[in-house]
Design goal:
The protein is of the alpha/beta class and about 425 residues long. About 35% of the residues lie in helices and about 20% in strands.
């Protein structure tokens, strides 16, 4: 392995890209950030100062970066979802390897175009499905691949999206309106989960997909009587509504900082008055939760038939009291049930010789860090992948990520057509 650090340019210097880039601060022998491309000049200058590179390597766009001859090994692409493909393809053709935020495409045509560009360029692209790198899911995958559960009969995943996460990201925030963000709720939030399902089932591919879902909660007709249009301006329920911006954001200012207070990021230590002024000046997170322009679903169910006859279900439920991801895999030798947030799962083996006819094993893999330690582990693996080309058990190389994305696209098409069954076609790729 090379002794020199992998050099990388940030494209889209938002919250997620900074998390990945910060790996360089803890591991300067492995990763070095040498440039940034972002339309926000202040963000570019902050990145230059944070990572120690010259202002001449600050670019206003991915296009401007692509106009310069390649001067780094890789790109960390943290642009918005609908910008991923159009910003990545020119950089692939210049010879950059890419760590690309999920979802890597917003429709099937984009997915095919990026996959073709990767094959054509011969470069390496890893998708930021960071959950694969959490010890919890990595150990489950190891056991499934080793055959501990036998042949998989059924796999069930669920994601409960907390009320504050749902309201912040998918009602008031960037991913609330599919026309603006170009993604569905299932794609933006839960492509992680369907990627996990496809990873657990690999090499067996999905065959048929059906899905239903709806937006039932945050609609104008559900607003409490007398509700205003902006929480802190004209709403008499500002102190009692569970979705009040005052209660969610002013009283908890350290939650969702990168989203809610994005207009204050130039202030090192914003005050309560700064935040209140942000709301007075039109901050969208002060809008009544029932009177936004959101159109994405707040719950959705997906049913999948695999090529070997196994079945899978995924349920996304928005508005729960707390966030939770669960996984339940049933095989011919036993089953496994776990909750990601706790980091714990139970393996129950069929055991006719035992008094209860089964034998349980409790496993505790609770880890700190973002996404169960996955945020850091994926960058470590990307550095190794760029240096050696070797793929770990968790590696999210683009060819390993197609099945999950295709399932999402087909599920959303099915939902839009009343749950009609959709066939998975992999012969196109």
């Amino acid at each position: 392995m090379s002794e020199q650090p992998v050099t990388a340019v940030i494209v889209g210097c938002g919250h997620r890209a900074v998390i990945y880039a910060d790996y360089s601060l803890a591991h300067p022998d492995e990763l070095k950030i040498v440039g940034v491309a972002d339309p926000n000049r202040e963000r570019c200058l902050m990145a230059a100062k944070r990572y120690g590179f010259s202002e001449e390597n600050c670019f206003e766009s991915a296009e401007a970066l692509a106009a310069r001859p390649r001067f780094a090994d890789a790109v960390i692409n943290g642009t918005m979802d609908h910008q991923h493909v159009k910003t990545s393809i020119p950089l692939l053709r210049l010879g950059y390897d890419i760590l690309l935020e999920k979802p890597f495409a917003v429709n099937e045509a984009e997915m095919r175009a990026l996959d073709f560009a990767v094959k054509e360029s011969g470069r390496r692209v890893m998708i930021c499905h960071v959950l694969r790198y959490a010890g919890f899911y990595r150990e489950i995958r190891r056991r499934v691949a080793a055959g501990e559960l036998g042949d998989i009969i059924n796999i069930q995943l669920a994601e409960h999206v907390s009320f504050h996460h749902l309201s912040t990201s998918y009602v008031r925030g960037k991913w609330a309106n599919s026309e603006k963000c170009k993604t569905s709720m299932l794609l933006a939030k839960s492509c992680h989960d369907l990627d996990i399902m496809m990873w657990m089932m690999n090499p067996v591919k999905p065959k048929k997909v059906s899905s239903v879902g709806a937006r039932t909660q945050f609609r104008p007709e559900n607003a409490p009587e007398g509700a205003g249009t902006r929480c802190t301006k004209d709403c008499p329920l500002v102190d009692t509504c569970r979705y009040s911006s005052k209660r969610l954001y002013l009283e908890h200012p350290d939650n969702w900082t990168m989203y809610v207070w994005a207009d204050l990021e130039h202030i090192e230590h914003p005050t309560d008055e700064d935040r209140m002024n942000s709301f007075r000046n039109g901050n969208p997170y002060d809008r009544c939760i029932y009177k936004c322009d959101n159109d994405v679903v707040d719950h959705q169910s997906v049913l999948i038939e695999f090529e070997d006859g196994a079945t899978g279900t995924f349920n996304m439920i928005g508005g729960s009291a707390k966030s939770m991801r669960t996984i339940h895999i049933i095989g011919t030798k036993g089953e496994l049930y776990g909750e990601f947030e706790s980091g714990k799962f139970t393996v129950s083996k069929i055991a006719p010789d035992e008094p209860e006819l089964f034998a349980d094993e409790e496993v505790d893999l609770s880890e700190g860090g973002g996404h169960g330690g996955g945020d850091e582990a994926i960058v470590e693996d990307f550095v190794r992948y760029v240096r050696t080309g070797e793929q770990s058990i968790s590696c999210t190389a683009i060819d390993n990520s197609l099945a999950g994305h295709l399932t999402v696209f087909l599920a959303d098409d099915s939902r839009e057509h009343g749950g009609e069954v959709r066939e998975c076609r992999f012969d196109k790729y």
